[in-house]
Amino acid sequence: MTEFTAIEHPNPTPQEKITEALANPGFGTQFTDHMVTVEWTEDGGWQNAKVEPYGPISLDPAASVLHYASEIFEGMKAYRHSDGSIYTFRPEQNAARFNRSAKRMALPEIPEDLFVQSLEQLLAKDKAWVPGGEGESLYLRPYSFATEAFLGVRPSKEVRYMVIASPAGNFFGGELKPVKIWVSRDYVRAAPGGTGAAKTGGNYAGSLVAQEQAAANGCQQVLFLDPLHENSVEELGGMNVFLVTNDGRVLTPELTGTILEGVTRSALIQLAKDRGLTVEERRITLDEWAAGAADGTITEAFACGTAAAVTPIGELLDGDKTISHTGDYSTTLALREELLGIQTGKVEDRHGWLHKLA
């Protein structure tokens, strides 16, 4: 176990202010009182672990992250159970993905036990910030970035790992209803041999212009395609995609190195198999999706991710063409209910996915 130094917050948020914040948590706009920091150097490894008051960080203007985007992150949630205890979901999977991202971005890998311990240390301080409402949680953001002041193009010899947390409501806000998706024909998210399988900020920065197009066309998200493989479906700006057929199959794009391997995605694959559904991980072209929606062989579509959990897809706008789903989303909603039930302690955790944080 790593020894963490705890620095007390001089002016912690009063409980009434926390209660006020949790009444309307939104997403990613309010932050808890503390943060975790662990430093890494090429010679000393991981060191100086601490939990300290949340606040601005100091960086040299020549820090590598500011010039070469040497950065990775994770997204996780902490859930309040009925007895007041706090759990997170499959943290070892997030740690493994974090380290795959680190390897791809030439950043140091972090031991899994230190990764999980950092979450425990933060929640030991900020347990009061975990909301308990329907669909609510505390969003956890571990991230790592290059801090060495050096303008040469090479891996940084100094890196900082941090964790911050933010109370979160429903990602798309309010009542759960099918979202509208814009099909991007002008931009791609990733290319073979690129960083598509890494959770790094540059992937998201590159998707924002397409997201602006989506918003301008009344859509909540954007779907990226792979033009090298007959415009096969890749993923949304920050979520994986699933389709449901009328003969009990669940389809999702296979992991080819250009798609982020979602922790929620892999859990849903298991839950679908538990229900006796046949899961196919393969290339799915947009033409196949359109034809299946038109003739009724593809009855449902949904997106999934840590932030949004499981969200039905109602329409895809592809220029002047529309792909529509108008079914009852029975499979989508059943998978969503079971997943959220496991995470919040209302449904049996058959696979041992939960980890107690506080």
TrEMBL record:
Residues that bear N6-(pyridoxal phosphate)lysine: 199
Membrane-spanning ranges: none
Reactions catalysed according to its record: L-valine + 2-oxoglutarate = 3-methyl-2-oxobutanoate + L-glutamate; L-isoleucine + 2-oxoglutarate = (S)-3-methyl-2-oxopentanoate + L-glutamate; L-leucine + 2-oxoglutarate = 4-methyl-2-oxopentanoate + L-glutamate
EC class name: transferase
Record pathway: Amino-acid biosynthesis; L-valine biosynthesis; L-valine from pyruvate: step 4/4; Amino-acid biosynthesis; L-isoleucine biosynthesis; L-isoleucine from 2-oxobutanoate: step 4/4; Amino-acid biosynthesis; L-leucine biosynthesis; L-leucine from 3-methyl-2-oxobutanoate: step 4/4
EC number in record: 2.6.1.42
Record-stated family: Belongs to the class-IV pyridoxal-phosphate-dependent aminotransferase family.
Protein name in the entry: Branched-chain-amino-acid aminotransferase
Organism of derivation: Nesterenkonia sedimenti
